[in-house]
Amino acid sequence: MHSNSNSSGISRRTLIRAAGASAAVAAVGIPGRLFAADPIKVAAVYTVPVEQQWVSRIHKAANAAKDRGDIEYVYSENTANNDYERVMREYCEAGHKLILGEVFGVEDAARAVAKDYPDVAFLMGSSFKPDAAVPNFSVFDNYIQDASYLSGLVAGAMTKSKNIGMVGGYPIPEVNRLMNAFMAGVKEVAPDAKFQVAFIGSWFDPPKAKETAFAQIDGGADLLYAERFGVSDAAKEKKVLAIGNVIDTQADYPETVVASALWHFEPTLDKAIAEVKAGTFKADDYGVYSFMKAGGSSLAPLGTFESKVPDDVKAKVAEKEKAIKDGSFTVEINDAEPKSS
């Protein structure tokens, strides 16, 4: 994987236009007009490596759209916050029509860029809401509280000590809501469960996450909520269980990761692509496309733990999943910082 942490210029991976899409070029007669058959030029600006959980889901969805021939896709990873605005502007100047990324630390700069390029659509991970003053800037977030709640039901059944460790990146809404939903699921099955909650102050620091998890295991935790990379490594070493977040890592930790709340970015991105193609993209909150009923999240298969999770809990998970999808049950979205109990 390349990196573009240097400030001299953008290091990009240029991906080849899907076969057959170039045939559509012959149909273009009016300069600047976008035909439905033309792939949209999409660029993404990431502050972390594309392997990082959260960003990997955006990257996966973008590659799927590229493979379908809907978009051309280039990206920059490991972009420093103080370099983010420049990279965004370079992609705009290069003619990209949809810019993706996460702007949690660079909100003001990103919205300023969007104002300067009104003909470019921006779809950005953000803790804030869309603003009518920047009509081409839409926001999204991983609202996967539905799947997090289901993973909590499983965790409540699997902890014996009723002491659960939770390691997060930062206590911001996108993390807090998942932790709170998980905790609500746990308490439904194990009302007397206690939680050790810690934040490492980084989105990507596996050694620090691992060290924090070790401390929680020393404090009696026999199951860990792995919001960050590094936590499952600690769980594996100490032979305790873990619950995954955003991606399914059970293949790497077959005896450790019981279940994972998965984020599927495809519904979010596909909605934006359709709006750009139709010329109807506007400032909007795309968060709802991460909900389970929109196909934006799911509970990973139990896999190696299929026979180890009690049948009554599996039945409860199935019942709650059905209720979430048909709208008869709503998982609370609680953005408040979770506390140890």
From TrEMBL:
Domain ABC transporter substrate-binding protein PnrA-like: from-to ranges: 54-281
GO CC term, one of those recorded: plasma membrane
Keyword Signal set for record: yes
Signal peptide: 1-36
UniProt keyword annotations, A-Z: Lipoprotein, Signal
Listed name of the protein: Basic membrane lipoprotein Med (Substrate-binding protein (PBP1-ABC) superfamily)
Pfam families the UniProt entry points to: Bmp
Keyword Mitochondrion: no
